[in-house]
Amino acid sequence: MQFNEQEFNDLYEKEVREVNAQLDSEILFVLIGDVNAGKSSTVNQIMGEEVASVGARPGETTAIKRYIYKDKIVFADTPGLDDINKSNSEETLKYYKEADVVLFFLNAAGTVLSDGEKKALQDVKKTNKEIILVLNKIDAADDIPSLVQYIKTNTNNEFKVVPISSRTGENMQQLRDAILDILQTKKKDLLFAKELKAKSGVANRWIIAASTSAGLIGAVPLPGADIVPLTGVQVGLMVRLATLYDKPISKERARELAIATLTGNIGKSIFRQAVKVVPGAGSAIGGGVAASLTLALGYGIKYAYENDIELNVEFLKNFASNFKDKDSNA
Hints:
The protein is α/β, with parallel strands linked by helices. It has 14 helices and 7 strands.
């Protein structure tokens, strides 16, 4: 592979612009559910600290509580379900319309999908369909799979259903992933992820996605055709991980890592290993190599950031070698 300096510079600058645009935006979450649905404790579990204690501010009405987290992320706790269509309905519906994500809470230990909840859900989805059904308090209920299936069946499988326990923290990463799926379509997932205390699950998600994309690119049997898009995938991964862990990566350091991964000993080492494992596989080897390179790059960066290790080419070479050996023995 030949490294293209100008293409790299353009890709790096583009990725930095997109990241900065995300960090300048805002995210609005709307929380819907009865007062005992565990909304506040769920928000605290999602973010990893007591959001209400650090960011509570009065809303426009006494019926809506707004919690502003790190100036950019707003959680709006709307009135109880019985109050939605009363005097505060206009203000509440305004929040529904503007929300990036609606977290609709159901109580696994109570009456799930009551008539009031069904009506409220119908009202909300007329305005905003970016809804996640959060089935809370699963630690106090039995046969959760059947309960989840009941909810899906009675909502026509329109929305993601995430069973959680805001008390124990069970399935919290699953809820974060569901939120990230929605925010990714709005180009706001990085802003959300950056403020999470639990960053490892997000990093794994991005690394695996980048590796999958790299594998598809590498499987194209055109010599040299994959270098630019593959560089784009890896540059994007480097910049996003650096932002996630709040450890800025310079263009020069990103270039060094990209060159070492794509054209240096890291690439050659893993390529030789792939040939041994899958001799004569043609384009499949290309895809496997590209995916392995990207996995090694991503997990190497993640490991360095999480363990306060200086991220440089020498570290990445050692990490890639260990990664390759573990991967081949798996």
